Amino acid sequence: MKRKLVLENGLEYIGQGFASEKEVIATLVFNTSIVGYQEIISDPSNSGLMVCMTYPLIGNYGITDDDYESRLISLDALIVREYNDKPSNFRYTKTLSEVLEENDVVGLTHVDTRSITKVIKNEKEMLGIITDLNVSTEEALNKIKQFQISNNLISLISCKKIWYSRCSNPKYNIVIIDCGITFSIINKLNSLGCNVTIVPYNTSLEKIKSLSPDGILISSAPDNLGNINELIELVKILQEKYVLLAIGNGCDILGSANDIEVFKMKNGHRGLSNPVRDVKTNKIYNVSENHGLALKESSNVEILYRDVIDNNIEGIKINDKCFGVQFYPTDDVYNNFIEMLNTFKGDKENV
Question: Looking at residue 348, what is its pLDDT?
Answer without folding.
Answer: 57
